[in-house]
Amino acid sequence: MYCTGTNLRLLTFRQPPRSSSPSASSSPAATIAFSKYTISIKSFASQPLPLSRYNIPFNVIESCRGNPATLLCFKTFVAKNESAAALSTVLEESDGISAGKRICGSVGDGDSNALVNLKGLREKSVTSIYAGPQHILNNIRRRTRISGGVLMNAGLITSLVLFLLAFDWFSWRIVKIQLETFYFLRPFLISAALSAFAGWLYIPIVDNMKIHQIIREEGPKTHSSKRGTPTMGGLFFVPIGIVVASHMTNYNSLPVFGSILATLAFAGVGLIDDLLSCIKSHNYGLPGWIKLILQAAVGLWFSFWLGSTNISTANMKLSVLLPQPFGPVYLGSSFLALTAFCFTAMGNGVNLTDGLDGLAGGIAAWAFIGMSVAVLAVSPDLAVFGASMAGACVGFLFHNRYKASIFMGDTGSLGLGGALAAMASCTGMFLPLFICSLLFVMEVLSVIVQVFSVQVTKRLYGVSQRVFRMAPIHHHFELCGFKEPVIVASAYFISCILALIAGCIGVLSA
What residue ranges are annotated as transmembrane (predicted)? Predict the structure, then answer.
């Protein structure tokens, strides 16, 4: 049974298997039209519907996701004769459908029509069917069950808060720097709270403006349900992370200022791409080669800016910091190419990872925390910037968790990638960045390997062969049968370990 209207919800009448009968081989359609609601019904017999012959229990399943209404449905089937049937149904729903409401329409069962009256039928043969106790218990369990997205968010936030509390407590012993109380936790929690609140204001706006995600046709078929989800979420959580970091550093930190400019530049490239995608109603906005050129240009500009400003000590400028005994490695002009490559790789890495609900945001949160620990001894202000951006990612996950209410789009993914690359470029912490962003690197490598394999095998053998079922690699795991929340939760766990390793490497390097 399919219902459309402001009050009625999507219902399904599921019929259990019954004994074979020549009169029950197929199911013609029937329609009841009344007022401003329309109910489409699938009849349960191909021949005239003699319901008085059967004592058939029907289970009512509410299939509308997220509907909190408690639905009790009592059905009375009345058989007038061998060619027509009258239906008496009473719907009681908590959002305003009154019991016993009189509704009239027609039911088609082949060549004959029958009047449908939802109240006052007094025919002789009546079979009353109701939802049994087992169905009611199943309905209660389904409504009280906590969704996987909420559990993942709770686990992520708990682990991040505990880690930041522990590091705030022991940071003075690790890096020998006297810091303010809750030096990391304060910007993290402020950004998370503001981003979560801003999302509730922002999502209805972009939804009303019809700024929705365009699902690529070659993607997994299960993603078709995500069509129509609002996008460009980076417009509300990336600026919040920037503003909180600027305020916590008193607006006078050159490393934070440069990182903010790089973040905004990358977010601007992503915004142009998102706008073009919405205008063209296609998943591809800017051509790929133009995006690569713009990202590399931002990286080159940032490296030139680093060389012209005094934001670090002389022995660290244009150098890569490595653990002892390797020490800082001076690169000179090669530092320009490394910075441009880092910006391009991180931007595309986060962008490619943003394919599952909550995946890119959670991995990025842990990557920012790992980088904050790594750069603390070199630039404490940049550590605050990283903690603030991590909190913004967590606030965004309140709305992007499974199942997502909004996607970050290229605006958010490129902005996050630019912020991570800027933190590494300002401090020379490229090795910790590579470690804590290893999942982003794997996503990029999976695409490169897939494209290379297809092109080479097609040229050599005439038939393209794929290494993965689909790239990026998180789609490969989807097609292997892993559920989306399982993939995301596993990525969170791996990211946590990588962030701890990256932080340790950074502390040893500094």
Answer: 150-172, 184-206, 227-248, 254-276, 288-307, 327-346, 358-377, 383-402, 414-442, 486-508
